[in-house]
Write a structure and sequence with these properties.
Helix content is about 35%, strand content about 25%. The chain is of the alpha+beta class and about 500 residues long. The chain folds into three domains: about 280 residues, 2-Layer Sandwich (BirA Bifunctional Protein, domain 2); about 100 residues, Anticodon-binding domain (Rossmann fold, 3-Layer(aba) Sandwich); about 70 residues, Translation Initiation Factor IF3. It has a seven-stranded mixed beta sheet with strand order 3-7-8-14-11-10-9, sandwiched between helices. A five-stranded mixed beta sheet has the order 16-15-17-18-19, sandwiched between helices. A four-stranded mixed beta sheet has the order 20-21-23-22. The longest helix has 26 residues. The structure holds zinc ion.
């Protein structure tokens, strides 16, 4: 979606979803609008998350929040506005975020004597509070997460992937030692990786960012990276070891057991609604969305096949809907006055994992037809006949099967588009072609990365330790320090 199109009034009328492969961007925009996930708004760079999109966000939030609680974290909430003098204290952080910060300069009729930044991220305001709260080693660790909106001045607009204001969570922790902070950083990276696979059905590569791709002010940044159908990588979450950079800038100290005053070691980690963009792009097909069941606002839609004068299927649909709701499923009975075929297409487009069809014949036999969205029409296993009495028990394994098959399809794609390359010319060609994740032994030198980027637009996505036999950087021939995935990216 170009800026220009964005400024046309209201949503562009999307009648049909174009096929996915020829123009992923057009498909993506059409599907996010037509499935009623988002709407463009009169506010430049900002989208409205509609109820169906917010339902996905709520499911992401619930799943991730449970994982944060399981790892000992608590939620809190900090102010949206940050006084300028506070923001200026951590030099790298300021430099990194300065071009993206929006400022409040006026309140009512009064011109402010000090500008207030709208948070682009909350290390600063949270650091200032931690300096107040933390006195002794007994106060550590502090393990807090915030669910919030942030604002970063952006020119382009693309739902979930690039918007000025977006929703996310940001975890901020403080520890007594460097070792504990690093352990926390890696623990949360693993939480994100596990969430991506088991909730979003997305296989990802987890690893450390190169120095140039690090979060401003971090001593190490880790990420999970997913691969999109156009061969571009999408960074889906990050976890930062901030060392003592922020604790020194914001004077967060504690008295150790040895009575010495020391600076704490801090971390921060975040996942935003960008993850939903990755899910939409990775799993969707020419018919529209295919939502992983754990993120789907509706797990199963019930469509009665009503012939005039016989509303028994509708009654039965409502009865089954109520029973499934009671059994803990997110279901909807589609009792709208539309033809069943129209409803089938609509719910397929909106990515509902399972469709339950109830016709007069099914009622006689005491069973219904359950149709899986992840499989192609007519594919083996796409339709199953289930006795009504077994529905509540059989839907859960069917939903798991949908999740597993979406994951398997995405994994097969990632595997087929990950290339271990040892030839320099092949490396540059694959990077330029946007072939996928190009895996090489790498020198870890910023100059080498900058050269590859200038030649091909590809950057390092993340890195991991060398493997036996790795010697020279495939890009430049200098000694290799790490293994790196290169790719073009969102
Ligand atoms: Zn190199």
């Amino acid at each position: 979606m170009s800026d220009e199109a964005f400024h046309t009034k209201g949503d562009p009328a999307v009648k049909e979803i174009p096929p996915k492969a020829p123009d992923l961007s057009a498909w993506y925009t059409a599907v996010t609008l037509k499935a009623e996930l988002v709407s463009y708004s009169p506010v430049r760079g900002c989208v409205v998350l509609r109820p169906y999109g917010f339902g996905m966000w709520e499911n992401l939030q619930r799943e991730l929040d449970a994982r944060f609680k399981d790892t000992g974290h608590e939620n809190a909430y900090f102010p949206l506005l940050i006084p300028e003098h506070l923001l200026m204290r951590e030099a790298e952080h300021v430099e990194g975020f300065a071009p993206e910060v929006a400022w409040v300069t006026q309140g009512g009729q009064e011109t402010l004597t000090e500008r207030l930044a709208i948070r682009p991220t909350s290390e600063v305001i949270i650091g200032v509070m931690y300096a107040e709260w933390i006195q002794s080693h007994r106060d550590l660790p502090v393990l807090i997460n915030q669910w919030a909106n942030v604002l970063r001045w952006e020119k382009a607009t693309r739902p979930f992937l690039r918007t000025m204001e977006f929703l996310w969570q940001e975890g901020h922790t403080a520890h007594a030692t460097a070792g504990e902070a690093r352990e926390e950083t890696l623990k949360m990276l693993e939480v994100y990786r596990e969430f991506a696979e088991n909730v979003a059905a997305l296989p990802v590569y987890a690893g450390a960012k190169s120095a140039s791709e690090r979060f401003p002010g971090a001593i190490e940044t880790y990420s999970i990276e997913a691969l999109m159908p156009d061969g571009k990588a999408l960074q889906s979450a990050t976890s930062h070891d901030l060392g003592q950079n922020f604790s020194k800038a914001y004077d967060i100290t504690f008295t150790g057991a040895d009575q010495q005053i020391q600076h704490v070691h801090t971390t921060s980690w975040g996942m935003s609604w960008r993850m939903l963009g990755a899910v939409i792009m990775a799993h969707g097909d020419d018919r529209g969305l295919r939502l992983p069941p754990k993120l789907a606002p509706i797990e199963a839609v019930i469509v009665p096949i009503v012939k005039s004068g016989d509303d028994a299927p509708l009654q039965k649909a409502r009865e089954i809907g109520a029973a499934l709701k009671k059994a803990g499923y997110r279901v909807r009975v589609d009792d709208r006055d539309q033809k069943p075929g129209w409803k089938f297409a609509e719910w397929e487009m909106r990515g509902v994992p399972l469709r339950i069809e109830i016709g007069a014949k099914d009622l006689e036999s005491g069973s219904v037809v359950v149709v899986r969205r992840d499989l192609a029409r007519g594919e083996e296993g796409q339709k199953t006949t289930v006795p009504v009495g077994n529905l509540a028990a059989e839907l859960r394994p069917l939903l798991s099967a949908v999740h597993d098959s979406l994951y398997a399809q995405a994994k097969a794609f990632l595997d087929a588009h990950t290339f271990r390359v040892s030839d320099r010319a092949e490396f540059f060609a694959k990077c330029a072609d946007r072939s996928g994740m190009i895996d090489i032994p790498w020198c870890a030198r910023p100059e080498c990365e900058a050269y590859v980027k200038a030649e091909t637009s590809a950057t390092t996505r993340n890195t991991r330790p060398l493997e036996p036999g790795d010697a020279a950087c495939v890009a430049c021939g200098e000694p290799a320090k790490v293994r790196a995935f290169f790719a073009q990216s969102y």
